[in-house]
Amino acid sequence: MTTSGWQHFEHQADIGLRAWGPDLGAALEQAGLALTAVITEPQRVVGREEVALSCAADDPEFLLVEWLDTLIYAMAIRRMLFAGFEVAISGAGGTYHLTATVLGEPVDRDRHQPAVEVKGATLTGLRAERGDGGWLLECVVDV
């Protein structure tokens, strides 16, 4: 798995996010993009503003949940959508620390046409696996 990407998968009334990348940071960047894609088409979002975010967790699975919830919170309080993600991970093996710079812009209902509001990441289907080619992440978000 040398490339990065994301996709959605169905899960009852909620939406599953699947992201992958050659390293954990790249996979988490793709998870951020997948989150935005639940709300709108990411290519509709222009990276006009830079926002610094951070979170931490004891393992990669909970780091995924913390990352998604951090993004959801930032979108809600700033009334923004994000489509550019630069994630750095430190402290592997104990507590994982994530620092990120995200690029986005205020929500424009006419241009972004938001489909749903994401309420939060769940523990349902939570998965973070490191394989020979990189990381695979999965999480279901409540919409």
What would you say this structure looks like, in words?
- By secondary structure, this protein is α+β, with helices and mostly antiparallel strands.
- Helices cover 27% and strands 43% of the residues.
- Strands 1, 2, 6, 7 and 8 form a five-stranded antiparallel sheet that branches. The chain has a three-stranded antiparallel sheet with strand order 3-5-4, covered by helices on one side.
- The chain is globular and about 45 Å long.
Name its key features.
143 residues; three-stranded antiparallel beta sheet; five-stranded antiparallel beta sheet; alpha+beta
Report a brief summary of the structure.
By secondary structure, the chain is of the alpha+beta class.
Major sheet attributes? 5 strands, antiparallel
Q: What are the low-pLDDT stretches, counting only 5+ consecutive residues below 50?
A: none
Chain oligomer state: single chain
Separate helix tally: 3
Helical/strand content category: alpha+beta
Q: What is the N-to-C succession of helices and strands? A: EEHEHEEHEEE
Strand coverage percent: 35-45%
Assign a percent range to the helix content.
25-40%
| Rg, Cα atoms, Å | 14 Å
Distance between the termini: 30 Å
> How many β-strand stretches?
8
Whole-number average pLDDT?
93
Q: Specify the overall morphology.
A: globular
Secondary-structure map:
Elements (H helix, E strand, L loop, with lengths): L4 E7 L2 E8 L2 H16 L9 E9 L2 H19 L1 E11 L5 E11 L2 H4 L7 E2 L5 E5 L2 E9 L1
Antiparallel strand pairs: 1-2, 2-8, 3-5, 4-5, 6-8, 7-8
Helix pairs in contact: 1-2
